[in-house]
């Protein structure tokens, strides 16, 4: 009798547990349950540190004031230049569970990856209704479009070819700010002889960043653009000179670069432990956060050889196909492209507005000079930050860079770059 | 009669686990193998058969060769180091000293720390910065006058993985020590005493009597290596 009772009870428990697990997944809280937030928008980015997180926070505040009944779900994942975040995003998109909107670099990174896979929606209607075509730069729009469809809302413009330096160290050693490669080598020789660390570098992606500025500085803007549309031969003598310059620049870098993040490396300059650092102008936002003063603790110039050229990258937000909360996502995108949103975001983030009508007085010293440059310089795109090359091409370049960093073989590096262009780029 | 009933009940109770493992482990392994033989490159699935081209490309890739080398270095240094250190610690503890319980806990303690914490702390200790920014082990060696020991640790070209294996050895050698100790303790004392009466030295006792327990322990230690590996 007891045994039968035992079996009966067990069977009942098993059945009830099975039923519970077979219940459909809980649907979203209907409006009546959450009196304050009637909707939510999940926004995915890699802005988790430095000026980046602070800028995002400022824009969230603007969003909270314009759309107080939409809850902002901040799904940020850490990792410089989005290396980790993009992997997480790819997994979610594969699983058919997209966030409502995510941050993406304007350019081939978006177009080559997400547009090709049909995962983001065109936003032409939004651009028309918000009048953005009148306030955003002409040279920017083609890079974020494909076949006439605009696919993202750019929030900011960053400059990649910036040389940060410590004015005190340069002055103490009688070194002028270099404008050409040769001047730079001479300056770094002087500094090294005086026992000063000439150049601060971080982990591999910062070295890829350095590579693109050296390519630009050696080749000039036309030939540099030609690398990405197939008109410049990667196997040419000029590219070889650029790679030899690059190999030489690396010899001036700190020996422990592989274990430093970009913030660690840039911090060496403002702390007076290194003279030069090549990093995008998001370093400006970081220096502000560290409480450093422009032109006293740090100075800036275009990277040697690239004076008059603005090597840009742009962070933008997209609208996912099949976004769970499409209207909330559109509300977020409106804020992202609005004057208030961009004016809140950019000064703190250390970038300039993608819009050209932002209030100049809100921006610090460096950024005001950047805004002036943005309107006057020749504009080219960044490689590391997804403007000129799609993901697989950039990965192949990065892999060949990784091998080069271990064996310093310029010829092998050049051969690998030629192969990368042939397999993932427009070269034949 | 009841033996059959038991059998049926056993199978029923075990079948949910078996089913789950079949689907989530072996099913997914099979699917991964299928994808590895296909032409899927970007975000959109593409299942056209690609024979073994992906594997051929992989083994021709220079970077993969580097990865394999790093794996072998890590495995070799970690397994051998962990076994050796564990064995040494077990032999020392086996001597029947006074603080044995305390030291046993001390050596086992690193296993309780999360891999991430171990990684962060060892990263600080093995900081490769030189000159004025030296810290961690390099600073200690420099201050003690042992300049020859100052090195680039995990950023050393070619052999850097061995430094990471050091941190793994620190964490897991307590486990191998515990295994060896259990093996050593399982051997009846009468055998050892008889050997001592017959005039065998301590070393001979370890070589001939205690070594019976080693192969099993080595296998278990290897297994723990696999777990650390997943973390890496």
Q: What is the correct CATH architecture of the largest domain in chain A?
A: 3-Layer(aba) Sandwich
Number of strands of chain A: 15
Work out the oligomeric state of the chains in this entry: heterodimer
As laid out across the biggest beta sheet of chain A, the strand order is 2-1-3-13-6
- Strand percentage of chain B, roughly? under 5%
User: How many individual β-strands of chain B?
Assistant: 0
Mean pLDDT of chain B: 86
Distance between the termini of chain B: 52 Å
Q: What is the total domain count of chain B?
A: 2
Per CATH, the class of the largest domain in chain A reads Alpha Beta
* Succession of helices and strands of chain B: HHHHHHHHHH
Task: Describe the secondary structure blueprint for this structure.
The complex is a heterodimer of chains A (about 425) and B (about 230).
Chain A: H1 2-21, E1 39-45, H2 50-66, E2 70-76, H3 83-94, E3 101-105, H4 108-115, H5 124-130, H6 132-135, E4 145-146, E5 149-150, E6 153-154, E7 156-159, E8 162-165, H7 167-172, H8 181-193, E9 199-200, H9 204-229, H10 237-250, H11 262-270, E10 276-278, H12 282-289, E11 299-302, E12 309-313, E13 315-317, H13 326-337, H14 339-349, E14 352-353, H15 365-376, E15 378-381, H16 391-407, H17 410-424
Parallel strand pairs in A: 1-2, 1-3, 9-10, 12-15
Antiparallel strand pairs in A: 3-13, 4-5, 6-13, 7-12, 7-14, 8-10, 8-11
Chain B: H1 2-36, H2 53-60, H3 62-93, H4 100-108, H5 115-125, H6 137-143, H7 161-186, H8 189-197, H9 202-208, H10 214-231
């Amino acid at each position: 009798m007891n045994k039968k009772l035992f079996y009966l009870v067990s069977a009942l428990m098993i059945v009830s547990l099975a039923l519970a697990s077979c219940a459909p997944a809980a649907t979203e809280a209907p409006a009546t349950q959450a009196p304050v937030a009637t909707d939510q928008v999940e926004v995915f980015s890699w802005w988790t540190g430095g000026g980046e997180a602070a800028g995002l926070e400022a824009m969230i505040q603007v969003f909270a004031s314009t759309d107080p009944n939409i809850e902002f779900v901040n799904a940020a994942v850490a990792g410089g230049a989005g290396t980790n975040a993009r992997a997480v995003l790819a997994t979610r998109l594969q699983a058919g569970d997209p966030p409502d909107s995510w941050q993406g670099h304007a350019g081939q990174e978006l177009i080559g990856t997400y547009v090709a896979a049909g995962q983001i929606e065109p936003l032409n209607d939004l651009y028309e209704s918000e009048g953005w075509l009148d306030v955003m730069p002409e040279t920017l729009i083609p890079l974020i479009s494909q076949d006439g469809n605009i696919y993202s809302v750019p929030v900011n413009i960053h400059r990649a070819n910036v040389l940060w330096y410590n004015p005190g160290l340069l002055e103490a050693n009688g070194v002028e700010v270099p404008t050409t490669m040769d001047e730079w080598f001479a300056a770094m020789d002087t500094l090294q002889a005086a026992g000063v660390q000439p150049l601060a570098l971080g982990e591999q992606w910062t070295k890829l960043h350095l590579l693109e500025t050296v390519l630009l500085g050696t080749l000039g803007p036309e030939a540099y653009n030609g690398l990405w549309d197939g008109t410049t031969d990667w196997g040419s003598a000029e590219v070889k000179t650029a790679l030899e310059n690059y190999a030489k620049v690396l010899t001036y870098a700190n020996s422990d670069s592989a274990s430093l993040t970009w913030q660690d490396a840039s911090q060496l300059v403002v702390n007076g432990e290194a003279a030069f650092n090549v990093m995008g102008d998001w370093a400006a936002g970081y220096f502000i956060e560290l409480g450093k003063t422009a032109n006293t603790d740090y100075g800036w110039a275009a990277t040697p050889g690239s004076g008059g050229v603005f090597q840009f990258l742009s962070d933008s937000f997209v609208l996912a196909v099949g976004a769970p909360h499409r209207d909330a996502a559109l509300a977020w995108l409106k804020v992202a492209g609005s004057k208030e949103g961009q004016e809140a975001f950019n000064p703190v983030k250390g970038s300039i507005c993608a819009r050209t009508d932002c209030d100049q007085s809100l921006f610090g010293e460096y950024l005001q000079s950047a805004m002036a440059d943005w309107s006057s310089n020749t504009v080219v795109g960044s490689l590391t930050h997804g403007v000129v090359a799609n993901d697989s091409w950039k990965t192949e370049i990065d892999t060949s860079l990784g091998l080069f960093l271990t064996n310093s073989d310029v010829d092998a590096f050049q051969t690998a770059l030629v192969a990368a262009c042939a397999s993932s780029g427009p070269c034949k | 009669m009841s033996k059959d009933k038991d059998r049926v009940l056993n199978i029923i109770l075990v079948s949910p686990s078996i089913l789950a493992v079949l689907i989530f482990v072996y099913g997914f392994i099979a699917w991964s193998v299928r994808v590895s033989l296909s032409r899927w490159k970007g975000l959109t699935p593409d299942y056209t058969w690609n024979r073994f081209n992906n594997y051929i490309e992989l083994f021709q890739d220079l970077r993969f060769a580097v990865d394999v080398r790093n794996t072998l270095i890590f495995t070799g240094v970690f397994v051998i180091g962990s076994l050796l250190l564990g064995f040494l610690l077990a032999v020392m503890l086996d001597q029947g000293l006074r603080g044995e319980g305390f030291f046993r806990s001390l050596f086992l303690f690193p296993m309780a720390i999360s891999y991430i914490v171990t990684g962060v702390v060892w990263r600080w200790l093995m900081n490769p910065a030189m000159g004025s920014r030296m810290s961690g082990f390099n600073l200690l060696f420099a201050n003690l006058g042992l300049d020859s020991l100052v090195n680039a640790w995990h950023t050393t070209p070619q052999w850097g993985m061995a430094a990471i294996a050091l941190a793994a050895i620190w964490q897991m050698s307590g486990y191998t020590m515990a295994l060896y100790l259990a093996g050593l303790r399982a051997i009846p004392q009468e055998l050892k005493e008889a050997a001592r009466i017959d005039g065998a030295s301590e070393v001979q006792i370890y070589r001939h009597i205690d070594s019976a327990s080693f192969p099993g322990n080595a296998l278990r230690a290897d297994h723990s290596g696999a777990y650390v590996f997943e973390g890496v």
